[in-house]
Every structure is written in structure tokens, then in C-alpha cells.
Amino acid sequence: MAALLLGLLLFALQSPPVPSRPMVIGAPPLPSTSLPTDNGTSSHPNGTLQQFPHIIIIGVRKGGTRALIEMLSLHSAVAAAQNEVHFFDWESHFQKGLPWYLSQMPYAFPNQLTVEKTPAYFTSSKVPKRIHQMNPDIKLQSTTHPHTPLPAPSPH
May I ask which residue range the UniProt record assigns to the signal sequence (predicted)? Predict the structure, then answer.
């Protein structure tokens, strides 16, 4: 299991960079969550900022999503949201808009990957379109859990 998690992390780190802001053609960019100072750096004392996730973990209940995000967050290049956000599947959260969603993300250094985990995104029919509208290049990491035992290997 540890090898799988390490492999997933390395895959995410080696993939081409994904914009952490929504890609909406013709729309003005969202305002930054940190105020720039005179020299153009972040006003937050340690240089961190909130950014949209680069990776969203989805999956079935009891499928290992919590274990996956806990293992990923051990790496210094990952900043993980602390709670399940339920932005794309709960109307009450989705109606608050992208600025609210961004406010739920952890503060991260610019070179860190931001990761969110909400397993329920796996079962909602409206989620794929909403995520794609926010960022068509985002990576989705899915975990599954077989409900039936795997078949025994066939003899050679």
C-alpha cells in the first residue's frame, strides 16, 4: 500500500503543472487571496497563499481516501485541505461560489500541490461538469474498494 501511495505522489509531482485558478475564457481572473506588497510578494508573512486544488481525491466510502490524503500530506510538497469540503455536491456550498471554495483550501507555498478529498464527489452526477468548469485540467484521484473478493489466479 505504501508503494502505491508513493507512486501516486510521484506521478502527481512529475505531471505537467496544472493551473490552480479556474480557466474561464473571457472572464476576469479571480482576485488573489493575498494582498501584494510594494515588491510584488505575498503579504502573508511566510509567503503562503490559498489556491484551488491541483488534485481532488474522490472514491467510495471505506475505500481508503482518508489514508491516501494522510499519506500524501506527509510529503512536504503537499498541502491538504483538513476537511471534506463538499463544494461540488452540496448546493448550499456550491451557491457560495468559487471564492468560498478557495477560502476552504489550506495556505500553501507556491511550489506545493494543494489536495482536497471529498469521497462523495464519486457518486454525484453533477460533480464532473462542475469540476471541469472550474479547471478542465485538474487531476482526479479515485480510490475504490471491491465489494466481492477477487478471483483466484488461474493455474498455468
Answer: 1-20
pLDDT digits 0-9 by tens, 30-74: 444 333 333 322 336 688 999 999 999 998 878 888 999 999 999
Domains of the chain listed by start with CATH number: 52-145 (3.40.50.300)
The amino acid present at 151, given as its one-letter code, is P
Binding residue numbers for 3'-phosphoadenylyl sulfate: 62-66
Q: What is the mean pLDDT of residues 102-123?
A: 93
Collapsing DSSP to helix, strand or coil, 56 comes out as: strand
Query: Nearest-CA neighbor of 134 among 94, 98, 85?
Result: 98
Rounded Cα–Cα distance for residues 75 and 115 (Å): 12
The helix or strand, by DSSP H or E, that contains position 55, with its residue range, turns out to be strand 55-59
**120 class by beta-carbon count within 10 Å (0-12 exposed, 13-18 middle, 19+ buried):** middle
Binding-site sequence positions = 62-66
Interstrand relation of 139-143 and 55-59 (parallel, antiparallel or unpaired)? parallel
Looking up cell 468560498, which residue turns up? 100
Q: Is the pLDDT of residue 153 over 90?
A: no
